[in-house]
Amino acid sequence: MAIYELRFKASVAKDLRGIAKPDITRILDRCAALRDDPRPPGSERLSGDEKYRIRQGDYRVLYTINDREVIVEVVKIGNRREVYR
Predict the structure, then answer these.
(1) Are strands 51-56 and 44-45 parallel, antiparallel or unpaired?
(2) What pLDDT score was predicted for residue 85?
(3) Residue stretches of the chain with pLDDT short of 70
(4) CA distances from 38 to 1, 21, 44, 64 (A)
(5) How far is CA 54 from the centre of its chain?
(6) Stated pTM of the model
(7) What is the pLDDT of residue 48?
(8) Does the domain spanning 5-79 belong to CATH 3.40.630.30?
């Protein structure tokens, strides 16, 4: 299996503001793991969208997968109560 290129949308930096540093570290480690396996156990495809989500504690990471270009792009990171709005 190929190693996927990991990209972050520009707005993700804004999403990370206000999150505690230990949580940010765990979230970014989880995002880095998407390079090897973009569909890990526990990931779910969102209905009506071409997005997937993974959970990290109380936070959710929403991302898209482009298999043709071998790219994973993180679209949004947020608390589980607010990320889907």
Answers:
(1) antiparallel
(2) 80
(3) 1
(4) 11, 24, 11, 9
(5) 6
(6) 0.93
(7) 81
(8) no
